[in-house]
Amino acid sequence: QLHLQESGPGLMKPSETLSLNCTVSGGSISSHDFYWAWIRQPPGKGLEWIGNIYYSGRTYYNPSLKSRVTISVDTSKSQFSLKLTSVTAADTAVYYCTAPQYASPAAIDYWGQGTLVTVSS
Amino acid sequence: QSVLTQPPSASGTPGQRVTISCSGSSSNIGSYHVYWYQQLPGTAPRLLIYRSNQRPSGVPDRFSGSRSGTSASLAISGLRSEDEADYYCAAWDDDLSGPVFGGGTKLTVL
Asked: What is the DSSP annotation of A2-58?
């Protein structure tokens, strides 16, 4: 049973770079069965896919965020990470790290608890 | 504005049957399975239905899903107070090359 835990700053200023880590336990981050993905949810709103990474390092990003997003994986730490540059208030959201199934990337069995990131001057 | 369209709210009384719709297009629901997620207040979403009509272990058989053409629906029978939550549909989308979600439906048990 995978367990995912997000970590990172809760409050940021506009134009800064958001950096979040997700620590994976209960299974291998080198598993062929899962992607590692970030999804966000603005307060009171719906879910938005940010991007996926496979253990091999291959990445897939939402085109609307692609110019600002980098997702990477560190197998030695069993972590994957999100960097989002030039944040604005519109990036205020709960950020979830998730593990979508490789065979069905819209099927997400495992979610972190989520971390609220607030962008405010 | 979400790629998949859901009604913003739904309601029912205990014991009733409610359905939540999810409308998409040929690039998502029309070509791929639909997934449903339940999000209780203050918690992360939980996979409720996969491959349009399959239930993960632990999900009561009161929950069922269906898909036809470019639409899908989630049905909850024998409504209970603990079903009060937000429900999201999702599907792979060829245009995005990623998963897309509905805007969510807030279910109230009266």
From this structure: -EEEEE--SEE-TTPPEEEEEEEESS-TT-SSB-EEEEEE-TTS--EEEEEE-TTS-
- Judged by CB atoms closer than 8 Å, whether chains meet at B51 and A46 is answered as no
The A-side interface with B (CB below 8 A) comprises 45-49, 51-52, 60-63, 96, 100, 104-109, 111-114
**Per-position b or e across A38-56, b if 16+ CB within 10 A of its CB:** bbbbeeeebbbbbbbbbbe
Task: Give the C-alpha separation, A56 to B26, whole Å.
Answer: 31
Mean predicted lDDT score pLDDT of chain B: 97
Residue pointed to by tokens 């990623």: B98
Q: Give the span between the Cα atoms of A21 and A97, in whole angstroms.
A: 8
Nearest-by-CA chain A residue for B57: A109
Q: Which of B40, B48, B103, B101 is nearest to B74 (CA)?
A: B48
Residue numbers in B near A104 (CB within 8 A):
33, 35, 50-51, 92
Residue A103's pLDDT is what?
87
Which residues of chain A does B37 touch, with a Cβ-Cβ cutoff of 8 Å? Answer: 47, 108
pLDDT band at B1 (very low <50, low <70, confident <90, very high): confident
- What is the token pair recorded at A56? 């091999």
